[in-house]
Automatic annotation (TrEMBL):
This is Amino acid ABC transporter ATPase. It comes from Komagataeibacter intermedius AF2. GO terms for biological process: L-amino acid transport. GO terms for molecular function: ATP binding; ATP hydrolysis activity; branched-chain amino acid transmembrane transporter activity. The lineage of its organism: Bacteria, Pseudomonadati, Pseudomonadota, Alphaproteobacteria, Acetobacterales. Transmembrane segments: none annotated.
Length: 239
């Protein structure tokens, strides 16, 4: 089933056309990735799906419901969650408080507790410092916390905006392992990345944006072997 269906999306910031007639479908249960260079419009696309940016044209449907005119809060209630670029955790709050914030809409406190404890089991560094300020965490740990917090909202669609940006190779690996695990546990993922090789490795389908337009889309395995993508994004061609 198609979970997210974006069609004919146009977004302008004054005279800049950030998205032009962009279409994208994400099927329930898959990892879809959006690739492209700086300024291609990737963040704008995610922010428009979330409702933080109003499109000038286009339709967005989520789980068969038209959501184009819904507010951010209404979309979050539908199950759409965004982890923005730069993580945006509350650095003046403790790790535990950040996680509880992610679960603030839920009333099943015991299950929330169990999910937080599972996260601590997976990331002992977060557990050891649960009552310390999130500001004290490394960039990689902050990203894990940001994703953990987002998952506590029980999203149906988790959107991640360049989660690997600025992380050490070790954390990049752990991050992509976490993304795969979250997906295997049933959450659909829309992943924006500049780490093209890693994103194509975990994704089922991909869309390539250039200057606000879709220049290519298809299943990830086919795109990985496409000469244009190899040359322009995977560094296997002539420069
Ligand atoms: N709030 C804004 N006001 C004006 N122009 C903007 C705004 N946000 C983005 N833009 C412009 O829209 C275009 C697309 O930007 P966007 O951030 O969506 O691209 P991106 O692919 O996510 O790039 P990056 O990886 O650098 O975040 C760029 O030309 C950018 O300068």
């Amino acid at each position: 089933m198609t979970l997210l269906d974006v069609s004919g999306l146009c977004v302008r910031y004054g005279r800049i056309e950030a998205l032009h007639d962009v279409g994208l479908q994400v099927r329930e249960g898959e990892i879809a990735t959006v690739l492209g260079a700086n300024g291609a419009g990737k963040s704008t696309l995610l922010r428009t799906v979330l409702g933080a940016v109003r499109p000038d044209a286009g339709e967005i449907t989520f789980a068969q419901q038209a959501i184009t005119t819904l507010s951010i809060m209404q979309r979050v209630a539908c199950g759409i969650v965004l982890v923005p670029e730069g993580r945006r955790i509350a650095i003046s709050m403790t790790i535990e408080e950040n996680l509880l914030l992610g679960a603030h809409r839920r009333s099943d406190r015991q299950v929330v507790r169990m999910e937080i404890d599972n996260l601590y089991d997976r990331f002992p560094n977060l557990a050891a410092r649960r009552h310390g300020l999130a500001a004290g965490l490394s960039g990689g740990e902050q990203q894990m916390l940001a994703i953990g917090r987002a998952m506590l909202a029980r999203p149906r669609l988790l959107m991640l905006d360049e989660p690997s940006l600025g992380l050490s190779p070790l954390f990049v690996q752990r991050l992509f392992d976490l993304i795969v695990e979250i997906n295997r546990n049933g959450t659909t993922i829309l992943l924006v990345e500049q780490n093209t090789a890693q994103a194509l490795r975990v994704a089922t389908c991909a869309t390539v944006l250039e200057l606000g337009r879709v220049v290519m889309s298809g299943d990830a395995a086919t795109l990985t072997n496409h000469p244009y993508l190899q040359a322009a994004y995977l560094g296997h061609g002539q420069t």
